[in-house]
Design goal:
- The complex is a heterodimer of chains A (371) and B (158).
- By secondary structure, chain A is of the alpha+beta class.
- Chain A has a single domain, classed as Cytochrome-c3 Hydrogenase, chain B (Orthogonal Bundle), CATH 1.10.645.
- In chain A, 45% of the residues lie in helices and 12% in strands.
- In chain A, strand 6 and strand 7 form a beta hairpin.
- The radius of gyration of chain A is 21 Å and the shape is globular.
- Chain B has 158 residues and is an alpha+beta fold.
- Chain B starts with a helix and ends in a 5-residue tail after the last strand.
- The chains are: A alpha+beta (371), B alpha+beta (158).
- At the A-B interface, helix 5, helix 6 and helix 7 of A face helix 1 of B.
Chain lengths: 371, 158
């Protein structure tokens, strides 16, 4: 039987999930080969939301291309902007003021919480529970309000720019973040009551979608999806940037490798983000929020690569410069693309009904996969 | 022993469901907490954040004067070609030629509200407005001319 899996034989059923399917979180097209109810093969087809962002960036200057990257992984737009700004700063060899560094980390972690909140609500909705969606959005809404007050936008911020930040934080920022933290802490037990402890949820998640650590490494899976399999891959710990090395937080690791482990990694990661924010929110140093940069940025000839940890995994920015005002080539290493490639390995031999649960735990954002 | 374990499992399963239902029941009976905006019923009282990036506007003072010198820094900073500065030459009473804006054309339909033009402006002539209801019936009305008719540059702005 095992040999047969993966090869289409007579009597197999091929069905299409998507591109316009409510459970695929966007325009993802999956071609699934079924034997009865058992999945033999999952083939993701991409290209429905390709906007050619990498090519677009080649015609934009080093200040202008930041705003496009908010539109890739729109749930961690701050972290994408952060990665691009770090790469440009690496090329220009400029040092960012301490105040900007701390605010950048605060924004990153708030974004991470907001992203995991949305994932948690959408994940539960994939499995048929609708109430958690509203609970998740209640907390996410207060983060969005904080972002709106300081950055002027709720989703596509363009706030972290080469040299520091676009504007200083709003005077209310610290107070509102503290309000959010107390709100979040008073509500965190509801997550476990509603979903984590629920027997129906546990039965649908435990032992489903197993991904071994070896497979996770060979497919390049990063982020919470890999940490659920016990692969240590947190860039914030391994290659710290912008002051993560001075902070006290744990890298969350689960060893079960199934959907429930990946779920638990994200739930526990939110609490670590809260821990980071608590360490920094009262200790924002005084000073400038931006270093003085030239009006026109020119990177020296060469290649520059930076990686950061987004809410989904490792995000890398690779810039090849010819010495001009625009990049010669830009490549983004998006976490979702590699994570999606492991879906086939996870899903083989499982039932069709569990596919949505597996996709949910990968936390796919299609514009990030398909730039 | 098997029976005991089975009953225990069933009881804990029922308990987990009841715990979740108690939480939903709590919110069913405590629905005072309004967390969303009641838009559009609250249009009169709705106030956007001060920094909200709605659209680019050019503020004019009561003498119909603006601060734009026509340096085209915003046009160069824009990633999408949203802003087009059309300049003209004013002839001052002394007979000197002076560069000034004729029209500052702003294409709202192309704008991504990235704030780069506002940051680039050396004389703070343009700012972001907090409007957000931009839908119109005619696409051409999204192309706006930001400076008022017959407006002049403010004294002292170079």
């Amino acid at each position: 039987m095992v040999e047969e899996i993966g090869n289409t034989t007579e009597g197999d059923l091929i069905i299409n999930v998507g591109p316009q399917h409510p459970a695929t979180h966007g325009v993802l097209h999956l071609i699934i080969t079924l034997n009865g109810e058992t999945i033999k093969k999952v083939e993701p087809h991409l290209g429905f939301i390709h906007r050619s962002i990498e090519k677009m960036c080649e015609s934009l200057s080093y200040r202008q291309f930041i705003y496009v990257t908010s539109r890739m992984d729109y749930l961690s737009s701050h972290i994408n902007n952060h990665a691009c700004a770090l790469t440009v700063e690496k090329g220009l060899q400029i040092e960012v003021p301490d105040r900007a560094k701390v605010i950048r980390i605060l924004m990153d972690e708030l974004t991470r919480i907001a992203s995991h909140e949305l994932w948690w609500g959408a994940m539960a909705m994939d499995l048929g529970a609708f109430t958690p969606f509203f609970h998740a959005f209640r907390e996410r809404e207060s983060i969005n309000d904080i972002m709106e007050e300081t950055c002027g936008a709720r989703l596509t911020m363009n706030y972290i720019v080469p040299g520091g930040l676009m504007q200083d934080i709003h005077p209310n920022f610290q107070k509102r973040v503290k309000d959010f933290l107390s709100l979040y802490k008073s509500k965190i037990h509801e997550y476990d009551e509603l979903i984590t402890g629920n027997i129906i949820f546990q039965n649908r998640m435990k032992g489903v979608g197993y991904l071994s650590p070896e497979d996770a490494i060979s497919f390049g899976v990063t982020g919470p999806a890999a940490r659920g399999s016990g692969v240590s891959c947190d860039i914030r710990k391994l290659y710290p940037y912008d002051g993560y090395e001075n902070l006290q937080f744990d890298e969350i690791l689960e060893t079960a490798g199934d959907s429930f482990a990946r779920y638990m990694v994200r739930i526990r990661e939110m609490q670590q983000s809260v821990r980071i924010i608590e360490q920094l929110i009262d200790n924002i140093p005084e000073g400038d929020f931006q270093t003085k940069t030239k009006a026109v940025l020119k990177l020296p000839k060469g290649e520059f690569y930076t990686r950061v940890e987004t809410a989904r995994g490792e995000f890398g920015v690779y810039i090849v410069s010819e010495g001009g005002t625009t990049p010669y080539r830009i490549k983004f290493r998006s976490p979702g693309f590699s994570n999606l490639s492991a879906l086939d390995k996870m899903a083989r031999g499982e039932k069709l009904g569990d596919l949505v649960a597996m996709m949910g735990t990968l936390d796919l954002v299609i514009p990030d996969i398909d730039r | 022993m098997f029976i005991v374990n089975y009953i225990k499992e069933v009881l804990s399963a029922v308990r987990s469901l009841l715990v979740g239902l108690r939480r939903t029941g709590y919110y069913f009976t405590h629905h005072k907490e309004i967390i969303t905006e009641q838009y559009p019923d609250n249009r009169d009282t709705l106030k956007m954040a001060d920094r909200f990036k709605g659209e680019v506007v050019m503020p004019h003072d009561e003498k119909n004067e603006h601060r734009c010198t026509g340096c085209t820094a915003c046009e160069l900073a824009c990633p999408n070609g949203t802003i087009k500065v059309i300049t003209k030459f004013d002839i001052s009473p002394e007979g000197k030629k002076k560069k000034a804006i004729d029209k500052l054309v702003y294409h709202l339909e192309l704008c991504t509200m990235c704030n780069l033009c506002v940051v680039a402006c050396p004389s703070d002539a343009i700012v972001m407005a907090q409007t957000f209801e931009h839908s119109v019936f005619d696409r051409a009305s999204l192309t706006k001319i930001l400076n008022n008719p017959d407006s002049k540059i403010m004294e002292g702005v170079e």
